[in-house]
Amino acid sequence: MSSARGVVLLVICLLLLESHASDILNDAHVYRAFASYEVVPDVIDEAPDCWARASFKSGRQAEGGNRLTPTQIRNPPVVTWNSNERALYTLILTDPDVPSRDDPRFREFIHWAVGNIPGNDIDRGETLVEYLGAVTPRGTGLHRFVLLVFEHLQKLDFSAEPRISAQCGTVRRYFSTRNFTRKYELTNLYAGNFFQTQYDDYVNTLQAQLRECESEREFDWLVQ
């Protein structure tokens, strides 16, 4: 095969991959995807109007229920959405399937929360909960990881809320997306996405880095 032909084939493959990803994340499919995986009603009452794009350093991205490994999502994703320059956004990444989807008695487990994000610039937002990758226990099957982006026009006051570091684990349990959004009147679910993950060996590495944090009584905003 000539080098020129190889380049042409590579370009065609990349275009096909881009087209495939665009088709998967077609906004017309949002409602159906969130309902078919029961994100509605397990986490939220209504699906967002459009997809948020979440791309991980591993090269993988969230595609509305696709399977990613804990190793692939070890680092926080780059998340983008069609933002309004006059608005602010609050982002939540939560796992409702704790310890498992069949037995979600610790629902939900909050993996990431950033408030008052200008546009898509998450680094300029207010981090409430630092990103923590998957700590899904062995034998608990697939967990849904749900990413939600809420739009609001005014800056919200999160000064009374705790800040949870990446080293804190159990204190993240019992988060309630519904209670949190009700408390801050986050009524405009602007964009979202989700994927599934289950145990791999990287979970052991991540769990070994966790430590005991403050009493859960200090984190009442997480409790249903």
Automatic annotation (TrEMBL):
InterPro entries: PEBP (IPR008914), PEBP-like_sf (IPR036610), PEBP_euk (IPR035810), Phosphatidylethanolamine-bd_CS (IPR001858). CDD domains: PEBP_euk. Pfam families: PBP. It comes from the Eukaryota. This is Phosphatidylethanolamine-binding protein. The lineage of its organism: Eukaryota, Metazoa, Ecdysozoa, Arthropoda, Hexapoda. Gene3D superfamilies: PEBP-like. Coiled coil: none annotated. The keyword Signal applies.
